[in-house]
Amino acid sequence: MADKSVLVTEAGLEKMRARLDNLRGVKRLEVAERLKAAIALGDLSENSEYDDAKNVQAALEGEIAELEEKIRHAKIIEGSTDTNMVGMGSTVVLKDLEFDETEEYQLVGSTEADPDEGKISNESPVGMAIIGKSVGETVEVHVGENIINYEIVEIKH
Hints:
The chain is an alpha/beta fold.
């Protein structure tokens, strides 16, 4: 049986819980009102507003079920106790050796990965390349046909 664990930070879990509360409360009420208004229009067999509202309701319930499942199987990422090694929850400063530019990423589970916020998954090419590595090491990251070489400059926990 496959492990259903969903790796998240404490902040990521709180964000999921807040989203779930919003969906269960505010969004469900909005959809219920939309359904009520569509039903009031009469004949449901050719009522596109009703069909749209039912589709929105189905999507909402699907998202609620997915979030409930993720929260149920959430496993809080414990920061690595080895401050010299990249682990889950670590924030890492990487230097692109070709362009001499630095980037900072936090290594998180795939559920809360958001590259725009500097959060990369342990399953991403960069995440897989840096996990378990130390400051000063150089890693080769394969992105499609390209190869990017990074040096690990700093590890924050």
